[in-house]
## 1
Amino acid sequence: MKITFLILFAVILSAAPSRGQSSPTPPEPKTSAAESSTLTKAERDRAVDYLKQTQMDFLAALEGVSEAQWKFKAAPDKWSIAETAEHIAVTEEMIWQLVSGKIMKSPAAPEKRAEVQGKEEMIMKMIPDRSRKAQAPEEVRPTGKWTTRAELLKAFNTSREQEITYLTETKEDLRSHFAEHPAPFLKTMDAWQWLIFNGAHAKRHTAQILEVKAEPNFPKS
């Protein structure tokens, strides 16, 4: 399944690791007959814990930020905390809509499961890596979509809570529905891995918020 707007993420993820750096693919966990058509408990717990942790870290990074700090830009071409937070929220919403509105409505293709086995390890390691920096595509750059900080955070939390609830409750087989990512080192990803990707993306840009707060001219209050 080829999703045209996934080109949005190619810029962020353009640098692929060499084969020598790749981690060995872990063996696929054994599952019971009941688990074979849905997520295992370990898969549910891992994704839910990761989404909850990256949500808490993002919200903690914004706690106590004043209006001056919220809008501070270290340079004209640098994002403020407000702009970075908007990028997180916009991307969160987009990926959740991709998973729930397209990937899970596509035909199941369990024969592809081996192709993506263990790819979540790469996602969780490489997406948050701030040593790979690039300009965000136009479609996900901040535009002031939300008038207030409260509205932005409500939108983010709504998407994230829907993802967590879905991961907790769904009986669908997220590991057998796929979409292509344009980054050459990711390519095919299953729906579960796309939700892991959302957590990793939030983690990446939460680190960017902390970088803004560490700027020498960042307002004291």
Note: The chain has seven helices and two strands.
## 2
Amino acid sequence: MTTSTPDAVRRRRWRGRTELARLARSRDSVADSDESDDWLTGGALPPAEPAADDATGVDAAVPRGLRLAAAWSWRLLLVGAVIAVVLAIASYLSAIVFPLLAAFLLTAALEPLNRWLVGKRWPDWAAALLCVLFFLIVVGGLLTLVTAQIAAQATELGTQLVAGFRQLMDWLAGGPLHISSDQITSWFNQLLKVLQDQSSTIASVLASAGGSIGTFLTGLIMCLFALFFFLKDGRRFARSAIGWVPADARVRVAPAALAGWRSMVSYVKAVVVVAAVDGAGAGLGALLLGSNLWVAIMALTFVCAFVPMLGAMIAGGVGVIVVLATLGWIKALIMLAVFIVVLEGEVHIMQPLLLGRAVNIHPLVVLVSIAIGLVVAGIPGGVFAIPLVALVNGVIQEIGRGGRRTADAAPAAADGG
């Protein structure tokens, strides 16, 4: 137990009076400032309260702002270290983590159907199994439609592709470039030589691609199993997870988790709308150009649109090649312009505004989150970035609302007491 000397007490009182005088001058300067500064303060500043400073000894010689900065710094470094460890573990276990995250997103998409079936007195296992079969039928049907249409037009595609290639060669020889057939033949010979020299590299790439296909199929099976059990026993999993939380914190953790889940469900619904708009735009463009494969282009664009930004580029490349082979290079350029409009609309309008509104996130945060996800974890990172941001954002907002409700209830309880 330490006692304060009279000199120490007088020094603390003098520092307190100095701080109060400084805050009073600060309030007066704000009140006399130009009204154009209100965009920063949001209007009149609330009355400032004197800051408590209980530092003693060596800490008292360090400015209070520097002490606060140091306190924030080590806490932020600790949080960053925890996030880095979590990301490292997730990267090491990516073959398990990504299928589980995909199953989590699909659960958010299929939960309304599952809930409706359970309300119709279906057993939990039957409702979950029907939802999984519905997902397989929809996705498998779309992919089958794309494959069947392209296969049905394969002969015509090959013939038109050869004719288009000949037209391109004629244009290179007789057009403004005046490229002779000898030059073209020389380029093809050089290309063949490069391919022969890189045969071992190409073989290793194909081998790794085959391994990736095996990994993908394994992850798909794990995703489907996880989806079934998430739909069937999701509420039981949630109750068990909440049971791990200390009893005095459950009253805030449970509503926050539910708010995060609802935010992610809103995101998934918005993604379906964005994908449908992308598919409709690409299919309509191909139809107006006279392509017989407009349904396949529409279905492929719809499926690929679930991968932010990159998916539309892949679908656009396939669609332009198909139109080039069937309708010529002029209409292929028009189809390319259609896909550019669709991609720009997705990136700059639908993704930021529609998804941002669905999850109550600023459009800039949406774009930055997608970019960070693509940089950190590639295509899977871009797919899962916004759902995770939506989940965390919903949890944080609910915690903030709960804190405000607690603060508002405290004076009322005191008055009632």
Note: Residues 250-406 form one domain.
## 3
Amino acid sequence: MPDPRFLVVRLGSLGDIVHTFPAIAALRETFPAAQIAWLTHPRWESLVAASNLATEVWAADTRSVKSLREIIRRVRAAKFTKAIDYQGLWKSAALPLLGGLATRIGFSSETIREWGVPVLYTDRVRCVTTHIAEQNGELSQRAGSTKTVARFDLRIGRQEDDAVRQFLKEHAIERYVLLSPGGGWRSKCWPPDRFGLLCQRLRDALNLRCVVNYGPGEEDLVQAVRSSSGSVEPIAYSGSMENLMAIAQNAVCIIGGDTGPLHLAVALGTPSVSIYGPTDPKRNGPHFPGSRVQVLRHETSRLNRARLSETEAGLAKIGVDEVLAAAFDMLQQEKNDG
């Protein structure tokens, strides 16, 4: 029997791709010789490649007609056995359909975010698990995987690792805590002044410097963190995806909300303290078995626009001392394990 040929679709974003890796790893474990072409956004091409799970990584910009035409042409020519849409959006579900795939697997209407999308699938999976990584794994199982999730490793290039080590050396930093104050929604973010106070406490109590990671459009958050950090001067850092992996892996701990960099760091084995508000860690929390993770959560009702300020106020109730204690416990555990 010939090996299957899978087209898997997960366009973005960072945290969602990381939560898709275990499901693709299960698919790869079941079908080690299968062709797996992963269709993603150009921004995440290097991240997907770092997992070494896909035979090929195809990049498509869904805002470009030219890019879409090229991808559809490639999909038609490849003659895949099955397509699995881990994204669950109209734009992701339409690509396998337009590519002429006879078997298209996706979420049922009970799980999916955009109304009506399941009509584009031939196989609709009604999930029985809670965490998004496990739900992704249920799609893999429908495609023939023997399990929902499996372990995976991310590869970091020597050049990127050397560049990050040089950056740290230039700032006289050896051991550090990585802070991730940003997020796709600002309503998911712990207040930046709390991160600034945390920088002070980490330096005073544990003699640890902080590196503040930020992405495009988050410069104001970094400035707010630094302004409230007193004289401890946390180092701001923004780099490529490969550099982010290196600086996350070398940290003694990462502290942040429900954000892509935090999920990436956990996947790399970095201990984490996760601060949750409007999203549920049972569905969106760090997922990797055996990882050292502590989740601090303020219970909020389901987020809507009317409750936005209430949610932000709730996150502010998670105190600096509480986060510091969680980080201390995490580092103590690391010391005991080592």
Note: The radius of gyration is 21 Å.
## 4
Amino acid sequence: MEIEVAIVKHLLALPGVSALVGNRVFQNGAVPDDTDYPYVSIMLVYGRDEECLSESPNFAEDTFQFSSAGLTRAGANTIAKQVNLALKDFSGVMGGAGGVNIQAVTHDGRHDSTEKQTDGTVLFYRDEDFVFYYERQ
């Protein structure tokens, strides 16, 4: 299973996340134009292989950005808090049976942004970066 698929499955399996966004967790930043808010978008921002730090030749270290999008700043921050609870300090198999063996997940920073739509609506984002240390399959 690819790491991105495992992350999406993991987030959607948790009531704290799915209760807020339903099934709207998108990988590779591919959010459809007609998507309802709120949602979470995941994108790889940095990756590298770390063969020298592990006995496994498939060990990888990837940093993903999780963008929690909402119609209010409080809404975006509430989603981000649930994502943080789901990921920070995680270790074990992520994604269920056949999932990815995660050695650790660490939080690597956050920032907020807004986007004004042509109709005047303001959208709010909380972007958080997490580093995944895992065994690539």
Note: The CA atoms of residues 63 and 131 lie 4 Å apart.
